[in-house]
Specification:
The complex is a heterodimer of chains A (about 250) and B (about 210). Chain A has about 250 residues and is of the alpha/beta class. Chain A has helices spanning about 30-40, 55-70, 85-95, 105-110, 110-120, 155-165, 185-195, 205-215, 225-230, 235-245; strands spanning about 5-15, 15, 45-50, 75-80, 100, 125-135, 135-140, 145-150, 165-170, 200, 220-225. The longest helix of chain B is centred in the last third of the chain and has 12 residues, at about 190-200. The mean pLDDT of chain B is about 95. The chains are: A alpha/beta (about 250), B alpha/beta (about 210).
Chain lengths: ~250, ~210
């Protein structure tokens, strides 16, 4: 049986992981390469690298970091941030990324999903969506969650999958940072309309939140989080063991 | 030296890095002389079967790989590269493969229950049907590896050395004499995957 995936997300700016990290045995906790190695050796099923630099200099540093990481990390890597064109896909895939995640770039140009899926295959295209409730309706937000696009989120996701997105990352702005658990209602609504893997993001604060996620919504394939892993609040090994003990398929 | 056949299909970066990580000398090449001189051959591949089979044929690599395999050189096909080792594929039409392993490639949708997601993507446990196979020298039953595929190898029973359960037992790895294939990506399967590549590097050539 396919195991449920646990995915740490690394936000990278000017070659460093932002959001403080604190690990024993790591000399340089803000080195993306060191952190990626640490996670890959300690049970992470996949890594997401998010490029939050805006400058072209920053972008060059990011791809260098990616190349360096891909030389020593042998688990699937997804790259997001600043992906607007097929050239952007090409740029990060050449550096060792396996999947590319699109967000604002696909909102500006929805054809990007179809074109990328046609060139690289559906499995390579991840549609990442920042979603927030506005007057009881799930709306798509752009620009890192700052701007309401007015688009209805479930319909946007359904269309994205139809265009060729092979995986969906649902980031709930409502639960993000609250550490009160994943947004089960939102994720359930997404799972009902798509047949591709769904990755839950936003809200994890403790191990139980992942157990609740997978037990309540068996159609969710993966849980993604950043700071709880970076700060060592949740250790991936402990999480995996608890998942297995709770009867959830996990790679130990 | 290991020759990773470069016929314009897929990204060889991770494969090259994997061999570097286990201390094996590997080059990505389309040079027949280099491939002939190599001790072992890797046949990679992602994308559509028909397109890849055509590129392999047009580049002269198909004939070369078959000849080297028949000489007894160890060959490992990965993902689509494994599927290409079989006799034929029914992926969007009917296409001939290299025929080094008996069997055919068919849609996963034919065998798995309707509510299973396709592609079969993620980490799944290996059920070793031939644990004594040399490429499993360092692999245990139940070790997890990373899969991404929508088509699977079938009618290849005598050559199957491992399966993965996904509502049906899907062929995960095959072997026939000196020819091996993995449906999963050893270069993306962490330590378990690197160990399979390491074991492949240690296989004896059946010349």
């Amino acid at each position: 049986m396919i195991t449920k995936r646990i995915i740490p997300c690394l936000d990278v700016k000017n070659g460093r992981v932002v959001k403080g990290v604190n690990f024993e045995g790591l000399n340089d906790v803000s080195s993306p390469v060191e952190l990626a190695k640490y996670y890959s050796e300690n049970g992470a099923d996949e890594l997401v690298f998010y490029d939050i630099t805006a400058s072209s200099d920053g972008r060059k540093i990011f791809t260098d970091i990616l190349t360096e990481t891909a030389k020593s990390v042998f688990i699937p890597m997804t790259v997001g941030g600043g992906i607007n064109t097929l050239e952007d896909f090409d740029r990060v895939l050449k550096c060792g990324a396996d999947k590319v995640s699109v967000n604002s770039g696909a909102i500006r140009n929805p054809a990007l999903i179809y074109e990328a899926a046609k060139r690289y295959g559906d499995q390579c295209v991840v549609l990442s969506v920042d979603v927030k409730r506005v007057d009881g309706v799930f709306r798509v937000f752009a620009k890192g969650g700052r701007e309401n696009t007015g688009m209805e989120a479930i319909e946007w996701i359904r269309r994205g999958v139809e265009s060729g997105a092979g995986e969906i990352v649902v980031n709930s702005i409502d639960t993000d940072g609250v550490k009160g658990g994943f947004d089960l209602e939102m994720l359930d609504a997404v799972c009902r309309v798509v047949s591709v893997p769904v990755i839950a993001s936003g809200g994890a604060g403790k191990i139980e939140d992942f157990i609740t996620l997978f037990n309540t919504l068996p159609k969710v394939d993966a849980g993604l989080a950043a700071s709880i892993f970076h700060f060592g609040e949740v250790r991936i090994r402990d999480l995996k063991e608890r998942m297995a003990a709770a009867g959830i398929s996990a790679r130990l | 030296m290991i020759a990773i056949i470069d016929y314009g299909v897929g990204n060889l970066f991770s494969l090259r890095s994997s061999f570097a990580a286990i201390g094996a000398d590997a080059v990505a090449t389309a040079d027949p002389a280099v491939i002939q001189a190599a001790d072992r051959i890797i046949l990679p591949g992602v994308g559509a079967f028909g397109d890849a089979a055509q590129k392999l044929k047009d580049s002269g690599m198909a004939e070369l790989v078959v000849r080297e395999a028949e000489r007894g050189k160890p060959i490992l096909g990965i993902c689509l590269g494994m599927q290409l080792l079989l006799e034929k594929s029914y992926e969007y039409g009917e296409h001939a493969g290299l025929g080094l392993i008996p069997g055919a490639v068919k849609p996963i949708a034919d065998v798995v229950p309707k509510d299973y997601k396709i592609p079969h993507i993620g980490w799944n446990a290996l059920h070793l049907t031939d644990p004594a196979c040399p490429i499993f020298k360092y692999t245990k039953n139940g070790d997890c590896v990373y899969f991404v595929h929508s088509f699977y190898a079938t009618d290849c029973a005598p050559a199957v050395i491992a399966t993965a359960e996904y509502g049906a037992p899907l062929t995960a790895a095959v072997a026939h004499k000196n020819v091996y294939g993995c449906q999963f990506h050893p270069e993306k399967s962490g330590a378990v995957g690197l160990n399979i590549l390491r074991a492949f590097c240690e296989t004896e050539a059946n010349v």
